[in-house]
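Homework help board

Subject: predicted structure for assignment chain

Our instructor gave us this sequence and asked us to write out the predicted structure in token form, then describe one feature. I got the tokens but I'm not sure how to describe them. Can anyone check?
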Amino acid sequence: MKKQAYRVVGSNAVVVKVAAASVEHLENIVDQLSRQSTVCSVVSWLLQSMQDAGEERRRRET
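My token output:
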């Protein structure tokens, strides 16, 4: 089982977990959240990680 740990600091800091069907879907979710508040730059890392994982999966399938 994977273990997860979060450290959230600041008066307005939260962790939001979503299950996105694709990078485009996640980008849409982030855009919607951005309208409500500031989205941390960690999201950029997450998007790149998802793209990399998708590319790796496609390489393995071919």
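Reply (TA_rk): Your tokens look well-formed. For the description, you could write something like this. The chain has a mean pLDDT of 77. That's the kind of observation they're looking for.
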